[in-house]
């Protein structure tokens, strides 16, 4: 289910704010009934009309993008920086990222025009495991990594337990490579977790999302998800299975 104004915005009817005004003005019908409440949730099986014209049900598409560093996880940027949709110029659908990766983070990002799918994958209740590889300034000791495994206090509260593994350490250069798996999706969470134990992240990449990996892709490349993968992700999210 998705909020009506969000669905209208995703369908390209108007910006979210303008869509809200259209709803308040009584210009939108859901299954034949005028709806004026902004919180109304709709699904792809509902028939939606705007000023008497029925919205076309766009075919749903699902992609896995290997996002390079230096790209914004959004569909537009007011500073004209590269955005993730720039990698899909030949696609005539309004796709957008599921969640986000920081400008400086590379790695696996799902892109879709299916709002319901995006919602369930990012809902805090259903979050799927995500695995990152971080290059750190310094090499953390086992007991320091244990703090992240148990959960650590950040300014927005304790983190859930994480899986953490030191992959390598270069004592000459003072750099450690650590793999970390979390299922939450707070803003800059991985960077803040390592910062909290005193090891700033120099480079970060998301290598895995549930069972999906970057296998076979280079930075900037994408592939369509198979219908089986889409189904599996939906089942995982809905049943609380994380990997
Ligand atoms: N955690 C971060 O710190 N950054 C990301 O892009 C994703 C997770």
Arithmetic mean of pLDDT: 94
Overall shape = elongated
Which fold name is given in CATH as the topology of the largest domain?
A: Alpha-Beta Plaits
CATH architecture of the largest domain: 2-Layer Sandwich
Distance between the termini: 24 Å
Output the number of helix runs.
6
User: What's the number of extended β-strand segments?
Assistant: 17
Helix content: 10-25%
If you compute it from the alpha carbons, what radius of gyration comes out, rounded to the nearest whole angstrom?
Answer: 20 Å
Low-confidence stretches: none
Which CATH class of the largest domain?
Alpha Beta
Bound molecules: uracil
- The proportion of strand residues reads 25-35%
Provide the structure class: alpha+beta
Topology (SSEs and partners):
Layout: E1 2-3, H1 4-10, H2 16-24, E2 28-30, E3 33-34, E4 41-42, E5 48-50, E6 53-54, E7 62-67, E8 96-97, E9 105-112, H3 115-122, E10 130-137, H4 142-150, E11 153-154, E12 157-158, E13 163-170, E14 175-182, H5 189-196, E15 201-209, E16 212-213, E17 222-224, H6 227-239
Helix pairs in contact: 1-2
The protein binds uracil (URA).
What would your notes on this structure say?
By secondary structure, this protein is α+β, with helices and mostly antiparallel strands. The protein folds into 3 domains: about 1-55, Structural Genomics Hypothetical 15.5 Kd Protein In mrcA-pckA Intergenic Region, Chain A (Roll); about 60-125 and about 210-240, 2-Layer Sandwich (Alpha-Beta Plaits), CATH 3.30.70; about 130-210, 2-Layer Sandwich (Alpha-Beta Plaits). Helices cover about 20% and strands about 30% of the residues. Strands 7, 8, 9, 10, 13, 14, 15, 16 and 17 form a 9-stranded mixed beta sheet that branches. Strands 3-2-5-6 form a 4-stranded antiparallel beta sheet, with no helix packed on it. Helix 1 (about 5-10) crosses helix 2 (about 15-25). The model has no long low-confidence stretch (mean pLDDT about 95). It binds uracil. Uracil (URA) binds next to helix 5.
